[in-house]
Amino acid sequence: MIRFSALLLLLTGSPVAWTVCLDPGHGGSDTGATGIYCTEKEANLDVAFMARSYLEQLDDCSEVAMTRLADQEVSLADRVAYANAGGYDRFISIHHNAFNGSVQGTETYCDSQGSPEDFALRDVTHPFLVNAFDYYDRGVKTAGFYVLKYTAMPAILGEASFLDYVTAWNESWRFNTRWMDHDGREGWAYCAGLCRDQSSPFTPDWQSRVVDNSYPDFSTHGPGPWSSGSFGSPFGPDYSWLTVAAETDSAQWKPYMPLSGWYQVSLWWVGGSNRVTSARVTVRHDQGEEVFTVDQTQGGEEWYSLGVFPFHEGSFGCVIMSTSGCQPGRVMVADAVRFMVSPTGIGEAPGSRTGPSLLVSPNPAVSSVIISPLGMPGTTGISIYDASGRLVATLSDQPNQEGFVWVPDRTGPGVYFAVARSGETRISSKFVVLGI
User: Fold this and answer.
1) pTM, entire model
2) Is residue 265 part of a domain?
3) Are 53 and 153 part of one and the same domain?
């Protein structure tokens, strides 16, 4: 996150800061591989933003740059020049393959004449990319790609899947619909590889999401106009702001939730004496909505928790900040919202509504699943079914402090359903196992 500098981290004894440049391949008239439902340039950009969302949660990652932020054509020379001018520590070029519609798999490249650091970054990232989709492992490879050959820092190029694949499923449809958080899993894999490469003390949870004002999942509504500012310590490169007028303006953060569950929602803004004192913030979640008033003259430049709320898998929830009721002439700042998975859920904050639910917490980097019944104190067991409805496991042991633990060592990756019963109450939750 840009708000931390390398010098500050060194002085405080925290891990040495590092930077990365993400390179979403193709763009503009250069579509790259073409699928029935989306093009490579679209998939590459979606994955890059997801990787950035995870990377910007790291205290030791001091800057995340991107060679393009929209559907624009950027030459190979300009991509390399941008990365070299920024002096970034690592370079990740994000691509997806194509052949004849019947080939699928994952491969990761570094330069044929690369340094030991190039090979190390490739080798540590590749297993995470393979686990993201559990497709055929086509191995680590070398090539003389322009962006690998001429970048001044260790660089890799990932081909996580074949976008034109249509034999057993349609890969472009999975990206277009964000099927089972398709772009999120790949973005997390790049982040995890970089964390391992840089010996980062923390890897973000796959389920936790950040939506910054510079992301596609952020939008503004109303007459505006909105401007960009970088005063203070914004989350990411900047923040959006406007001067309150008579007509109502609003900003919206609309994340894609990878799994249904309880998430702690927090705001980030840069405060100031001219800020609004009564920004109207609405959290729309799976069981309704809660409304808060936020004074932006106080605090700021750190996460401000609004509470813990239930969200359904997909893009059904959102956070809206409105100027309604604010004094004209003052400034409202819209920066970032974090949705962090909560292991506890009910009762952790005002505004959370009661009701039984299941919080299922798989992590794509490990082989176990934690299932936590919320609001069901009489739960004595959990049944696990596969996508065809076949019972594959019954968990009857007393749960540990976090919940029931299932190790799917005999069933393999796939879609599963956890079912809990307590008296006449029966609830279920869908979840995904990425790798064993």
Assistant:
1) 0.78
2) yes
3) yes
* 159 catalytically annotated: yes
Rounded to whole angstroms, the Cα distance separating 250 from 296 reads 15
Count CA atoms within 13 Å of residue 428 on its CB side.
11
Find all residues with CB under 8 Å of 321, minimum gap 6, and list them: 250, 251, 252, 279, 280, 281, 282, 294, 332, 334
Mark whether 261 and 378 lie in a shared domain: no
User: Domain ends where: 174, 197, 220?
Assistant: 197
Task: Single out the residue in 146, 167, 197 at which a domain terminates.
Answer: 197
Is 215 contained in some domain? Answer: yes
**Out of 40, 56, 107, 159, which one is annotated catalytic?**
159
349 Cβ contact partners less than 8 Å away, ≥ 6 residues apart:
264, 305, 306, 307, 308
Element containing residue 63 per DSSP (H, E)? strand 61-66
Separation of alpha carbons 231 and 308, rounded Å: 30
Q: Count of alpha carbons within 13 Å of 396, Cβ hemisphere only?
A: 2
**Which whole number is the average pLDDT over 271-277?**
96
User: Of the ranges 80-89, 151-160, 283-292, which one carries the lowest mean pLDDT score?
Assistant: 283-292
**For position 22, which CATH number holds?**
3.40.630.40
Quick one: pLDDT at residue 211?
Answer: 97
Residue 348: inside a domain: no
Quote the percentage of the chain above a pLDDT of 70. 89
Per-residue model confidence as pLDDT tens digits over 281-291: 999 998 888 99
- Identify which has the larger pLDDT, 383 or 90: 90
